[in-house]
Amino acid sequence: MVKMESTEEQDRKLVLEFCHLLEKSKQLFNGLRDLPQYGHRQWQAYFGRTFDVYTKLWKFQQQHRLVLDSKYGLKRWQIGEIASKIGQLYYHYYLRTSETNYLNEAYQFYAAIRGRAYYSRAAKEDRPDLMVKKLRYYARFIVVCLLLKKMKLVRELVTELEKQIQEYTNTYEPEDHMEWSLVLEEIKGFIKAEAAVAVLHADSNPIILSHSGSGSRLSPLTTPPCERSPHMTLSLQEILIVGSACEQAKFSELTMDMFRMLQTLEREPTESATNPLSMSHGMHGHDASPAASRIPPYGVPGSKGYLENGRHYRDNPHKYLLYKPSISQLLVFLASGFKELPLGGALLLYMSADGCFSTTKHPEDYGYELGGLATSVKRDSVDGGGLSCRGKSYKENHCLYPGDLYPFTRRPMFIIIDSDNSFVFQHIPRYFGQPLVILMSPQDVPPAFQADVQHHGSLFTLFLHSPLTALCYICNVGDVPIHHWERCQTYVDRFITEASRLVTRCRIDEIEQGIGFIDSSYVQFFGDDFLRTLILRFVFCDVVLRLHRGFRGRHMRPRCEPQLPANELLEHPSLSHIIFQLASALDVRGHFSEGPECD
């Protein structure tokens, strides 16, 4: 009898311990939304504590499942909810650290929820809030799969989500059914826009390429070659990706341009070989969770850092993703990235936005009188209630002007502007003598592409993300067999290799004396894999659009500042020759201007 009471007491203590861990985990998880979105060290320890508690909670429910089933009444959807929270933790940790391996961790948890059907009986609980949790789980899982390019699974999940939304609507007639219908349409529109060119397998089914330069993340196979020099001193450390284009396809606060650019600025994640929901191993074992005691302070090299030239770097630069930010938010995040830059680090600002045009007839101040980029439609509160004085012309408050960026050029800065008013940023001065490169999109595209580009994502960003896809798109090539795609990709690789050779052949002593054909800023940035990739893909874009018959006029070609040399690079015969060869291989030679016949 005493032994039985002891067992019951033990069971009671186990249930109490589980309830304590569950409540503690919820408190910590809810506290995540109160953490500052910018800055690094402020949130690291809190995330570590949250991971620690969820690790303990997950292992605890695994080890004591029978007791919790019988004494607590633990349901499968409750296990699914814990797993979903852990998946969210990993996803948000990826967003804050830019380490793509955490995307794989999030995927493992979300996939296990689906594979083990943790939410399968949610509809039978007669709880609309539980159904909403299930729908949110699907939406989050779709985002992770999109970022990992698991498009076949994305389509399956969208079909399941549509069915779940229908069931939710029919059962509860909820007030938010229109919102979920809009979410579904948003996802479908995003998937359609993402597939600019279909690469077909032998059975004519579209496939997603992840290691062949098709717009994937950077990998050893896709990193452009480079003849290094001692002057290639800078590494990309901080990135601000801003999406403010009004009509562009988006999902989960990621516009298509943001979606493409963030992948362009990441390395391929390594596949996880273990199952994080294994009954025997728990969550990769306790030590695998990124808890505070096991993660080094931000910026200090850890297991995911690597050593180059005696200095440590993270696998991926740190990124901020801002969807339609207010001007104050944009400047705060920009200042945070500026503040966090280590010695030898560079800051990249990428902005995809609609133009904010000036009405000044005779501009004198190029920093503010040529217009800029429209930021959020949300309005910051302005002292004075927005009153204007008679006879005075004020600037648009909700606009990023070139002059707003002047203070940040105190550190090495790489700027990419994708807008119909991009060229106004070419006048940013180098007051502080720091390396500065500005890549600007064409301000216009031929009428045949305007509607598609406005909704499906910018052509310029597509060139920076996947050069071959962009070339196919402007030549109306809708699908390419896989073997043909890979053959064409070899021409792109040859182009990138040749362009890299042309950039680096300028002698360093000539650059130092100011008589070299290329500005020293390009050389200093060229040692970084990501920045080198962007520069060389910009060259590809410029050469292709210059030769394409449909893109006539300087406003339909990109610009850069400092200017890249024409004779020695952009109009070099060897680069044009490769483009003509590529066009012939795709059977679109007629889209390009006359040139030497290809072999």
TrEMBL record:
<protein>
    <submittedName>
        <fullName>Uncharacterized protein, isoform B</fullName>
    </submittedName>
</protein>
<dbReference type="Pfam" id="PF12070">
    <property type="entry name" value="SCAI"/>
</dbReference>
<dbReference type="InterPro" id="IPR016607">
    <property type="entry name" value="SCAI_metazoan/Viridiplantae"/>
</dbReference>
<dbReference type="GO" id="GO:0003714">
    <property type="term" value="F:transcription corepressor activity"/>
</dbReference>
<dbReference type="GO" id="GO:0006351">
    <property type="term" value="P:DNA-templated transcription"/>
</dbReference>
<feature type="region of interest" description="Disordered">
    <location>
        <begin position="269"/>
        <end position="296"/>
    </location>
</feature>
<dbReference type="InterPro" id="IPR022709">
    <property type="entry name" value="SCAI"/>
</dbReference>
